[in-house]
Amino acid sequence: MTYSGRVTVGGPADVHELKDLMITKVAVGPMENNAYLLRCRATDEQLLIDAANDAGTLLGMIGDDGIASVVTTHRHGDHWQALAEVVAATGARTYAGRYDAEGIPVPADVLVDDGDVIRVGQVELTARRLVGHTPGSIALVYDDPHGHPHVFTGDCLFPGGVGNTHKDPEAFASLLHDVETKIFDVLPDETWVYPGHGDDTTLGAERPHLPEWRARGW
After folding, report:
1. Confidence of residue 158 (pLDDT cuts 50, 70, 90)
2. pLDDT at 32
3. β-pairing, 93-97 with 46-49?
4. Are strands 157-158 and 117-120 parallel, antiparallel or unpaired?
5. Burial of 157 (0-12, 13-18, 19+ CB in 10 A)
6. For residue 154, what pLDDT band results from cuts at 50, 70 and 90?
7. What integer pLDDT is reported at residue 167 of this predicted model?
8. All residues at 6 or more sequence positions from 93 whose CB lies less than 8 Å from its CB, including other chains
9. Is 97 exposed, middle or buried (0-12, 13-18, 19+ CB in 10 A)?
10. What is the pTM of this model?
11. Which end of the chain lies in a sparser environment, N or C, as judged by fewer CB atoms within 10 Å?
12. Cβ contacts of 127 within 8 Å, gap of 6 or more
């Protein structure tokens, strides 16, 4: 079946099958958070992005092979409600942005800085710090050698705009600047975007609207 990126809480996961990586997306919790399970097809090692809620659903998706690591995109509570339980069940290494880690109750084994590489098996993900939604939000970029890039943006980029900056003009300017310079300016239109809530998008679908976002200020 063709991957759509549309998932609902309590509904089935959706699987994006790439040549070197399998990406499984599921929605969990009252805020309809997305969690993403990445599996290296060469080694079967797995990594989870955002143990947001409903540990049972996440552990069922992970299966008996377990996960080597879990990355929390940012400090907001709806993105780590199941983190302690998932880590206790799997023994996974924990990753978080250096400037958000103190706001996450499960200690980070690895503090992530801008440009750091996080590996899942033979697959490399490059972290990008995006400041504004929180001080230390991170996006993860997978530059697929067989196709276009894929980026997991947490709550920093969605269809229709950047993440919530709570009507703080300085935070909005910072987030828009980082999203433009570290995502839009360096990645092609074909780049697939996996946000922390809701449907996926592409950079090409969003790029024409950047001036509108800047003008409206949110």
Report:
1. very high
2. 98
3. unpaired
4. unpaired
5. buried
6. very high
7. 94
8. 68, 69, 70, 109, 110
9. buried
10. 0.98
11. N
12. 97, 112, 113, 114, 115, 116, 117, 118, 138, 139, 140, 141
Q: How far is it, in rounded angstroms, from Cα 67 to Cα 187?
A: 28
161: left (phi over 0), alpha (psi -120 to 50) or beta: left
For range 46-66, the mean pLDDT: 98
The pairing of beta strand 137-143 with beta strand 21-28 = unpaired
SS (H, E, C) the chain: CCCCCCCCCCCCCEEEECCCEEEEEEEECCCCEEEEEEEECCCCCEEEECCCCCHHHHHHHHCCCCCCEEEECCCCHHHCCCHHHHHHHHCCEEEEECCCHHHCCCCCCEEECCCCEEEECCEEEEEEEECCCCCCEEEEEEECCCCCEEEEEECCEECCEECCCCCCHHHHHHHHHHHHHHHHCCCCCCCEEEECECCCEEHHHHHHHHHHHHHHCC
In the numeric block, which tokens belong to residue 122? 């033979």
Specify the amino acid at residue 118: I
Tokens of 55: 């540990």
Average pLDDT over residues 92-116: 98
Contacts of 11 (CB under 8 A, 6+ apart): 27
Q: Which amino acid is at 85?
A: E
